[in-house]
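Reopening this one. Same input as before:
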Amino acid sequence: MAKKYRVAVHGAGWVSGEHIKAFQSNPHAEVVAVSSRKESSARAKAMECGLKDAEIYTDFGKLVANKDIDIVAICTPNDLHARETIMAAEAGKHLVIEKPVALNLEELRKMRDAVRKAKVKTVVSFVLRWNPLFETIKAMLADDAVGEVFYVETDYQHNVGSWYTGYEWVRRFASAGGTFLAAGCHAMDALRWFAAKGLHETMDIVEVTAYEGGYRHNMDLDYPGFSVAIVKFKNGALGKVSSNFDCVMPYNFPIEIHGNKGTIKDNRVYSHKFPGQKGWVTIPTILPDSGDVTHHPFKGEINHFIECIMQDKESHCNLEDVVNTHEACIATMISARERRSVKLPLLENS
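Same output, byte for byte:
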């Protein structure tokens, strides 16, 4: 009988339930522990997900010291991700890490180095890479539908407010990290994903020029709720990306990709692949059009990660890859506040 990987989910908030359900649906995984700073929260999440026999932890150190646990999913607030990732990596655990993985360059460097040293498998929860529209677009890019990409545009538009269960920590810079790290990193990661032609490839960003604006700064947010950046990719392509918490509208995640043989706008395609085309071809698929985590394809992400562990291969969305996504998000703040372009990488590559 094939090994079942024993999983601990650390954190008992909104997103942790989706991680638990995704692991429960995989035949090679078993959720055996739930952890939170409050015992009542961990027990409530376990009961909600039907985990009657799960171990309950309030001490993360004791959780990672359990040699029977193979995988830890980090689902805690943003400012805890780096420290907990380092602890789990040093204990030899494979890791699912909620975004953002870190709030500053020092945290990012330390966790990257810890994972490198431990040689554990990681996947960072840029879960939209498994959204059906994203998967379709990547397949079309790999099939030369738009040719060589020269421009990509993505935007995260979400009026994050008091309705959100994590609002109290997301509105503070110290625990959120700013609009791009708090949530707009999904758009930054998508920008890198669509700038690369290969089916499982991303394109590194090498330069960022950004501005901050909006109207909620010093009202309910203690950082600018709107940021927009122009980026240059390693292959010479250009991109525009924004993160907008200040918009007065429903959630939206627009995508635009231009190549020398066609264009993709959201789920509409104009391509040399359709001879005689007189208008846009519309792809009838699931769009990234909701901020509700129950809408996100966690099952695809977790199935992919379990496969990576079983086959001893790295995920295309591992920590090493998404360092560049996080560097670019941090660079937007440096660029806007110092009024200059910022070149990447910001971390040493050794």
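So the earlier flakiness isn't reproducible anymore. For the record, The chain has two domains: 5-127+299-318, 128-291+325-343.
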